[in-house]
Amino acid sequence: MDLRILNAEIQAFINDNIGKSISKLALQKNPFQDVDWISILNQIEAKTKAKDKLPNWFSTKNIIYPSKISIEQTSSEKTAAYKASIVSGESLIDLTGGFGVDDYYFAKKIKTVAHCEINPELSNLVQHNFKQLNASNITCYPGDSLVTLSSLNSKWDWIYIDPSRRNDAKGKVFILNDCLPNVPENLDFYFTNSNAALIKTAPLLDISAGLSELKNVKTIHIVALENEVKELLWELHKGYSGNINIKTANLLKDKTETFDFILGEDSKFSNFSLPQKYLYEPNSAIMKSGGFDEVGSFYNLNKLHKHSHLYTSTALIPFPGRVFEIQNTFPYNKSEMKSYLEKTQANITTRNFPDSVESIRKKWKIKDGGNVYCFFTTDENNHKIVLICTKIS
């Protein structure tokens, strides 16, 4: 970590070039001969990435950034704040600290937070940043987190782990045993140091696959940001063997959409019907959860088809996802398409439909955008249909 990057003139230069083309800047002569030009460009690029994702870091003076890739991979402040809402107590140890965004928010809820990071340079950088952010209750420990966990010999209220893929496992299906640290392998050891663990995994991990590798899972949180699933959070409690709760959260600019249910509860089933007046599309967190019968049952909606995952009603209701008013419904065939959609402009979604959005646009010369929303799907009678809608929310 080169502290010369904090020179006032260099910091002013970095701030003046936020959002500028790095490739064009790279062609310029370095105006600061004492500091590596690549390091300065990296700060510009990484800070640009942090502007919307990490507003507290962006607005704080003398923050030093790691590589652009590290910023892209770290939690956003919004998802970090959600994680902090899960934990409670006096102490938490993060075994995979990284850039420290999660720990900054944990420290707002927990009295003592330990940040473990195997990369000593990154650990030093994060320690510096925590001082700038006035996060005084976080202690940084460089080195192997398992060694740190053993040497501290403390009982923690929570252990937090964000395992990363091994480089040599890129070609395999994503499973926790392919990650570092290997959580399933070390879980018994973790539970000798804490009664509760929070495991973050990427959205591509299949929920059933995760459950086959982990034990004592009490709750699975599926977190989306602006309708894009960002992470799965596995809440484990030592000795727990009861029902598994599924909590979905879609973090939007002005609100959070939530829907919760118990995994595998037998009493939920779907009712089916042809399209009625309104159409409902669950948000991405609910789609990832697989709670298709549960959401339809809870909101008393009819499903269009077992595999379509679109819902309908005659009366308008609030719903965690997109809501539309159906203006027209017609069978998917050449004459109907020519009459209603050929050479028009529309937003297209396919659900349980054989053709892709791209092929539909190309075949019928439909331009993207506008105020018309078209769903290509399958109804309860296995007929391919098109719904022309206007968006309500």
UniProtKB/TrEMBL annotation:
Keyword entries, A-Z: Methyltransferase, Transferase
Species of provenance: Flavobacterium rhamnosiphilum
GO molecular function annotation: methyltransferase activity
One biological process term in Gene Ontology: methylation
Record-linked InterPro entries: PG_1098_Fer, SAM-dependent_MTases_sf, Thump-like
Residue ranges annotated for the PG-1098 ferredoxin-like domain, each copy included: 278-320
Name of protein: Class I SAM-dependent methyltransferase
Superkingdom: Bacteria
Gene3D superfamilies in the cross-refs: Methyltransferase PG1098, N-terminal domain, Vaccinia Virus protein VP39
Residue ranges occupied by any THUMP-like domain in the UniProt entry: 321-391
